[in-house]
Amino acid sequence: MEFKVFIGLEIHIELKTKAKMFCRCAADYFGHEPNTHVCPVCLGLPGALPVPNKKAIELTIMVGQALNCQINSFSKFDRKNYFYPDLPKGYQISQYDLPLCQKGEFEGIKITRVHLEEDTGKLIHEIANNQKVSLIDFNRSGIPLMEIVTEPDLRSTTQAKDFLKKLQQLVRCLGVADADMEKGQMRCEPTVNLEIVKNKRKYYTPLVEIKNINSFRFAEKAIEYEIKRQLEEFEKTGLEKQAGNKTTRGWDEKRQKTVLQREKEEAADYRYFPEPDIPPIRLTDSQIKALKSKVPELPGVKIIRFMNQYGLSREAAINLIRTNIRADEFEKKINEAKKYGLSLQEIKINELASWIGGKKFNQKKKLKEIPVIFIVRAKKDYKLPKEKVIKTVNLVIDNNQKIVEEIKKGKETAIEFLVGQVMKETKGQVDPNHARSILREKIKSA
Ligand code: ZN
Ligand code: MN
User: Fold this and answer.
1) pTM of the prediction?
2) In angstroms, what is the span from residue 82 Cα to ligand 2's centroid?
3) Based on the structure, what is the number of domains in the chain?
4) Residue-wise pLDDT tens digits, 162-200
5) Ligand 2 center to 404 CA (angstroms)
6) In principle, which of 18, 168, 207, 240 could form an S-S bond with 246, CB 3.0–4.6 Å?
7) How far is CA 140 from the centre of its chain?
8) Are 78 and 141 part of one and the same domain?
9) Which phi and psi (to 5°) does residue 75 adopt?
10) Which residues, by Cβ under 5 Å, contact ligand 2, an ion?
11) CA-CA distance, 230 to 355, in Å (whole number)?
């Protein structure tokens, strides 16, 4: 029995905006006291009017462009009606037939659409006074949520997991989201079914959507389980019955299996209709172009460039591009070293890359504290006679009196500029730490 796996992904990502999607409440709710980031709009009180967040629309379009989508110059918001306690309005403002972006392609996988909607509140199930209770926190309600939908182009669990990781890398590089799965900022819903060939006949197992997966590992396990379950089901039933509508299942981590949630689900069940309180969104070509110009160098391109330009291994390059701050700092340090008169060959590039790409790189720590010594080759011997070094230091001090004054007034970091000047004058033949200490001494005694 031969079979083929079809996996499609629906990925929800919370956008990193200051305010929520349709109101002015602050969006940085994580870890805050429940129900403190709320207002009549995000509580869904009757009569409250939503006003769309322009920034969220822009960020979504940027993602669409990075995913090579077509950007719709005319799009609109719709109401998706359903009842659930975390959705007080009784509907979610989403996008139905006219999403912001559609028909893209990323890493060889077709992107169906990218649209914008609002997140729901969060249910917390607890025991209080020996009773099971469900509490609702509306801080999350109304957070801008971007939904990316792929075609069922993924053929294996590994491929699906890799794709999710690359997507996470992409939105982080674009700076539109933190996409931390542990914090629920990125959730995914894989859709899985199989094509089975038996006695030269093709059979298709019913489509199953697995709800709200919040870790790469769970995604992997849930899809793996679902493939096995569908195969077994086929062998049991022969699948003569028609592969009908989509079934919804949930991943049960305790029991390590997917469990049935809902039998059938169709778009018609949601009775989508245009959101009457928000006018349609019209984008001019120049607005779309302007956003396109904001899309930075994408991770895939940057990895290749780092490998070619700096001779890094793929792994080292991937570690560096995990956050923008790392990648930027790496290149900044290299440029600094060049200013010191060092050639690319003279820089300890692999050590620098593994230091900035590694655990030791603490983002909260001042970046200036990255030791300059890392960019200088260990074996480089500083042959310059001491008198020559002192002479250069004196010269640099004489030529930069303004900066010397600043240092004396307490702006200590300005000394790095003078170190750079000494390195430049001596064509990198001085140990920068040595140069710094002589500079400090001279400035103190001057
Ligand atoms: Zn609000
Ligand atoms: Mn959605």
Assistant:
1) 0.82
2) 12
3) 2
4) 999 999 999 999 999 999 999 999 999 999 999 998 888
5) 58
6) 207
7) 18
8) yes
9) -145, 170
10) 147
11) 46
